[in-house]
């Protein structure tokens, strides 16, 4: 399918650079047979007893680093742990980097173990994972998306983590989860729905532009995820009783669909997924999705178009733009019904 089918014009002033306060005061466009303008705080009223809500519990690490190679300044964006002390990263500029180069990072050095295409390198911290965590805490910066043009603020350390964040490893927030507050979670449970979590460590590939003309030529970066046996059993039990599955965010959708079989059963899963969902994909298990508003021509807009229908999503985005909804990571939300 042609990538330009997923293009649209978005005014720059609709790109949110700060979250709504409180988080659940963000607007929410309900996209089904009709469009409804609501707020995220209304979500529990749109659920039924027995429904199951699944969110991503990954925690964003301070994955943006500024290192030195002699006098040259090198920006590093970690995007996937590959082994003890080893991380895939995007380097900028990467042209003059060579395997064996050592980069200064404060009091430490990191080794360029391998160089790949597209500015990607393998970094060896030559340290235990807990030591890497400590090093990132001292020298790392929150990996705010490139469309947020302002400088990182102290508040971003908390603002760019979801209520569910528990397991370190993401280099981008699963942004639909940013709308949740303790009060909203409690209201969902009070409605009779269950709230479960899985883990998908979101990689920087989330923000990479699609540079091909046809979706069939695009390759997704791999991301590590886990669905535990307990969560799989709970989801299957809820759906067997007629409960609908609401996935919080595209990351939850991608992992749930990776772990489901063709009959709609969810299985334990632990490993990498590079699933790329575009129109024509037959969803196995997710019934509804809460997600933010995404970039034109992005893999995320392709996914929501596959879920709710391309023409319906184009109409929904046109409405959102006309009503001045706020877009992207710190923006407003949409609640999508599966087409």
The 3D shape can be described as globular
Query: How many distinct helices?
Result: 7
Can you summarize the main beta sheet? Answer: 9 strands, mixed
The total strand number stands at 17
Walk me through the structure.
The chain has 2 domains: 3-60 and 157-337, QueA-like (3-Layer(aba) Sandwich), CATH 3.40.1780; 64-141, Thrombin, subunit H (Beta Barrel), CATH 2.40.10.240. The protein is globular. A hairpin with a 3-residue loop joins β1 and β2 (35-39). Strands 2-1-17-16-14-3-12-13-15 form a 9-stranded mixed sheet. It is built from 7 helices and 17 strands. The protein has helices at 129-139, 156-159, 182-190, 229-240, 250-259, 299-308, 310-322; strands at 27-31, 35-39, 52-56, 58-60, 64-69, 72-83, 86-92, 102-105, 108-115, 120-124, 167-170, 194-200, 223-227, 245-248, 269-273, 288-292, 333-337.
Key descriptive features of the protein:
339 residues, QueA-like, nine-stranded mixed β-sheet, alpha/beta, 7 helices, single chain, Thrombin, subunit H
Quick structural summary:
This protein has 339 residues and is an alpha/beta fold. It has helices at residues 129-139, 156-159, 182-190, 229-240, 250-259, 299-308, 310-322; strands at 27-31, 35-39, 52-56, 58-60, 64-69, 72-83, 86-92, 102-105, 108-115, 120-124, 167-170, 194-200, 223-227, 245-248, 269-273, 288-292, 333-337.
Write the layout of secondary structure elements.
Layout: E1 27-31, E2 35-39, E3 52-56, E4 58-60, E5 64-69, E6 72-83, E7 86-92, E8 102-105, E9 108-115, E10 120-124, H1 129-139, H2 156-159, E11 167-170, H3 182-190, E12 194-200, E13 223-227, H4 229-240, E14 245-248, H5 250-259, E15 269-273, E16 288-292, H6 299-308, H7 310-322, E17 333-337
Helix pairs in contact: 6-7
């Amino acid at each position: 399918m042609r990538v330009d089918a997923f293009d649209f014009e978005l005014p720059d002033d609709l790109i949110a650079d700060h979250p709504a306060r409180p988080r659940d005061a963000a607007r929410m466009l309900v996209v089904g047979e009709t469009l409804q303008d609501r707020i995220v705080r209304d979500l529990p009223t749109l659920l039924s007893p027995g429904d199951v809500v699944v969110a991503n519990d990954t925690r964003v690490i301070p994955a943006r680093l500024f290192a030195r190679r002699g006098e040259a300044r090198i920006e590093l964006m970690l995007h996937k742990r590959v082994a003890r002390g080893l991380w895939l990263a995007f380097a900028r500029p990467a042209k003059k980097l060579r395997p064996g180069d050592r980069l200064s990072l404060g009091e430490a050095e990191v080794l360029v173990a391998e160089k790949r295409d597209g500015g990607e390198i393998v970094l060896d911290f030559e340290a235990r994972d807990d030591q890497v965590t400590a090093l990132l805490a001292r020298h790392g910066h929150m990996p705010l998306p490139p469309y947020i043009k302002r400088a990182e603020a102290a508040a971003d350390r908390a603002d760019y983590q979801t209520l569910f964040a528990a397991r370190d490893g993401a280099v981008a927030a699963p942004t639909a989860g940013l709308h949740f507050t303790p009060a909203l979670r409690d209201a969902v449970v009070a409605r009779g729905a269950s709230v479960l979590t899985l883990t998908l460590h979101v990689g920087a590939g989330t923000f990479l532009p699609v540079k091909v003309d046809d979706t069939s030529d695009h390759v997704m970066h791999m991301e590590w995820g886990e669905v535990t046996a307990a969560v799989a059993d709970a989801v299957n039990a809820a759906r067997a009783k007629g409960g609908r599955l609401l996935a919080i965010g595209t990351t939850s959708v991608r992992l749930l669909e990776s772990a489901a079989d063709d009959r709609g059963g969810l299985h334990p899963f632990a490993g990498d997924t590079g699933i790329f969902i575009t129109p024509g994909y037959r969803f196995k298990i997710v019934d509804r999705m809460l997600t933010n508003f995404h970039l034109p021509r992005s893999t995320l807009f392709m996914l929501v178009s596959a879920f709710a229908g391309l023409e319906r999503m184009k109409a929904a985005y046109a409405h959102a733009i006309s009503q001045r909804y706020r877009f992207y990571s710190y923006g407003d939300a949409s609640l999508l019904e599966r087409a």
